[in-house]
Amino acid sequence: MEIVNLAVLPEVTSAGVAIKAIIILAIISAVAGFGTFIERKVLAFMQRRLGPMHVGPYGLLQIAADGIKLFTKEDIVPQNANKLIFKIAPSITAATAFIALAAVPVFPDFTIPEWIPLLGGVFVPSIAADVNVGILFILGMMAAGLYGPLLAGMAQANKWGIIGSARTAVQFLSYEVVTGLSMLAPIMLVGSLSLVDFNNYQDGGFTSWMIWQQPVAFVLFLIAGFAETNRTPFDLLEHEAEIISGFATEYSGMRWGMFFIGEYANMITISVILAVVFMGGYNDLGFMAGWFIVVFKIAFFFFLMLWVRASWPHIRPDQLMWLSWKILMPVAVVNIVITGIVMMI
Amino acid sequence: MSLEQFKNRNVGEQPYVLIESEHRPKSGMGRFQRVVNRTFKKELFTGLYVTMREMINTLFRGEMAAVKYPFEKLPISPRYRAIHDMLRLLESGHYRCIGCGLCEKICISNCIKMDTRYDENQRKEVTEYTINFGRCIFCGYCAEVCPELAIVHGGRYENASEQRASFSLFEDMLTPIDALKQQQEFDGFGAVTPNADNAIKKTPLAY
Amino acid sequence: MYEQIAFYLFSVLTIGLFLVTVLSKNLLYSMTALAAGMVMISGFFFLLGADFLGVVQLIVYVGAVMALYAFAMMFFDATRDVKEKNPNGAWIFLLGGMVALMMVLIFSAPIFSENIQAIYPSIAGATNPQSVGLVLFTKYLVPFEVAAVMLLVAMISGIILAGKKMDQSLTTEDDVLNTEIITEEDDK
């Protein structure tokens, strides 16, 4: 593993961190909104439809139209609901999703050019908050994110909501085990919990990618990531055919929209983790620059989630639990044991 | 599809496949093996392949199924019975209706009302002609009975209206005189659709 | 200075949230406040530079333990207030007095803190998870392993208690089997 010489790097100022935080908030929330458009388009193409077409060229301004609709819609709070909890639950989902992104390195470090007034020369780090335990921090924040759907379902005095929140607790708890255990094997190889170290571990080109050393962990984390982000084969929390909309049944307007933004931000987080931990991160690949190729990788995983949603049916809750506890968790444990034995030899 | 192919109704030569129901595993090990088979027998990946194929076909090979409806419309069958049209004689431009009153007689929902008189040439002239589209059931008898092919069914199928009874006057249905050249002759009932050849599916009658 | 501001902010928030937990009669408020308080406590760990422990606090207490409480709450009507029973005044007096005594001791603790030395001083150069691991697998190996065995016992007993019908599947092809069970139960 290459040891990064800390003295070479410029000092990380609070201005740089603030700029990075603003970049994350601005870009990710915009991309999360754009993700809804992409999702509708991709699903439409896979079903031989056109998708949104009328607002703006090729429906590109549909996000703005949706946003205006969500903001101006009446915000309904049911009479018997626990009003305070009902109101703060959506912001938990959105907030935890964005806090998790604080520890994710998306782009390489860069220094703002000197010719830009006021901010010229400020060094912007690759991570807003470079905690040493980045990967655990992300998993922990995503674990805390389960309170959004959970409290939303329990506060709204609605049986569909209760079922949705029960499924939230069961699904997120079970798959947290799988995400943690599957991530453990790459952590053992790298010997660090920082995502920057993961990135630097794979700077030897295409063959040094973690996916070639840990294919099982990659598949396990991919499956568990779908469950953690509540995407289609496992989106039992708001399974329309069974429980209307699950935890989001009574929500309308912008509160519902915050659940949506949180879900898309979580999708981006999982895509970034997959890209950084398993697919070589933002290292340069051949002639392609690192920042370009990492966007491409993230976009691929985002597309994969939409692709799978178009292709595969839901599974039942009991099948979900069966898959988690009887298949994925034992496989993850065996993977860790084998990794440990190989490392000792 | 050629005619010979269509006439061949011998099931044995056709690519029908009998699907046998899956063997059900009894033991836990059997179930585990089934999971492994389902996972690695490319079933999941076949699903992914199908959606990706559709996406590529849609985007690059022009197999988009969606029609931007209010802006573009699919051609409808000549047999389709939509809002009526009144046709004109192609030579003189005079309307074809001779005021015989057969359509009014045969109309089973009593929605056609007409009034006629003799004009100065002792020829029947239609003075009043209305169809109540709140009552019309689009059975097509009027067009079938018309001896002059004057009243036919046209292609206007968007007949939502603000009132329950929306009357249509003779002048509304009559072909505009400047659009006489575009007037389509009515093929009559039993006419085949333009894409009839493509729409035909072989059904195995020999079962 | 930032650290002091953050410390007092987290302290006030933690105490306030735990007060809500104890004093609120609504289950949902109590649970939410407890979970939020756990998040605030992890903030103290981050302030002290113990990133690993802070994250573990997040994952274990916020992610797992509190979610189990929440799961137990599914059996109650979360929108209704709980009626509390206060049977014995003497107990409340005793417990309150003990808490007061504890508070006095805690606030007077800094007087003696100068004499306290760490028995296991942190190793220079070791990162956060490494030092935790070193202490856990050397000095505290026996308690750690005992705790692990206890958790294993709890897990196995939980599976045994809950898993009486575990080998039966709910899938369609076993419908025949399930209907047989139902009819048997009906006969009883």
Describe this structure in words.
The complex is a heterotrimer of chains A (345), B (207) and C (188). Helices cover 64% and strands 1% of the residues of chain A. Chain A has helices at residues 14-46, 62-72, 83-102, 134-144, 147-155, 159-190, 195-201, 210-213, 215-228, 240-243, 253-278, 290-311, 317-344; strands spanning 110-111, 123-124. In chain A, α3 (83-102) packs antiparallel against α4. Chain A starts with 13 loop residues before the first helix and ends with a helix. The model of chain B has no long low-confidence stretch (mean pLDDT 80). With 207 residues, chain B is α+β, with helices and mostly antiparallel strands. In chain B, the strands form two sheets. Chain B has a three-stranded antiparallel beta sheet. Chain B has a two-stranded antiparallel ribbon with strand order 1-4. Chain B is 26% helix and 12% strand. Chain B has helices at residues 3-7, 28-40, 43-60, 102-106, 141-145, 170-173, 196-199, and strands spanning 84-86, 112-118, 124-132, 151-153, 167-169. With 188 residues, chain C is mostly helical. Chain C folds into two domains: 1-82; 129-188, no CATH class. Chain C has helices at 2-23, 27-47, 51-73, 89-108, 128-137, 141-162, 175-187. The longest helix of chain C is centred in the first third of the chain and has 23 residues, at 51-73. The interface between A and C is medium-sized, with 35 and 29 residues.
